[in-house]
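// run 5 | inverse folding | seed 20
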């Protein structure tokens, strides 16, 4: 159906944000979408640091944004805002890199005090990049995401249901089918 770029803006190698995104990627694949995961922390630091848009990895990332029909943006919240790593990537993209795209913003954090970070910090930046539609996003508390010793991810039931709903709304906006509640 649609090609979705799933972007984790977390700088952590053991990121709950990235794990949550990869979990939601599976739901989108089951709904018929092609999903391309992108962990910003895997991009060459020197290319990010020097804002080198001609670096092959950055040029490839820009091409991924161009090819995508939809973009999921996930970030941990630090000091009431999205990650600096995500900000660095967004600054490297062309001004209207999201033109015509459907976007799903997601955030994770340790406190409900940061729940509005999506709407007051991230959404305005994404909106300035020209998307056709930004679907309702979701903030998930870190304590609602657990990773087992074997790497399995568990999301608290209420958060899992909310994430399924926003993911399904994003999928519908892309023209995808939704899953039955039992597969949540």
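// decoded
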């Amino acid at each position: 159906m649609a090609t979705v770029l799933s972007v984790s803006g977390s700088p952590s190698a053991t990121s709950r944000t990235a794990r949550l995104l990869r979990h939601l990627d599976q739901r989108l694949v089951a709904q018929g979408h092609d999903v391309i995961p992108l962990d910003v922390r895997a991009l060459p630091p020197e290319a990010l640091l020097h804002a080198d848009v001609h670096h092959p990895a950055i040029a490839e990332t820009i091409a991924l944004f161009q090819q995508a029909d939809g973009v999921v943006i996930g970030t941990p919240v630090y000091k009431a805002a999205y990650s600096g790593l995500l900000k660095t990537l967004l600054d490297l993209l062309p001004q209207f890199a999201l033109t015509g795209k459907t976007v799903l913003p997601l955030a994770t954090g340790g406190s409900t005090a940061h729940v509005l970070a999506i709407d007051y910090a991230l959404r305005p930046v994404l909106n300035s990049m020209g998307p056709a539609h930004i679907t309702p996003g979701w903030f998930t508390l870190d304590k609602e995401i657990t990773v087992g010793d074997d790497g399995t991810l568990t999301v608290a039931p209420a958060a899992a249901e909310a994430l399924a709903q926003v993911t399904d709304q994003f999928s519908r906006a892309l023209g995808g089918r939704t899953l039955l509640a039992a597969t949540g």
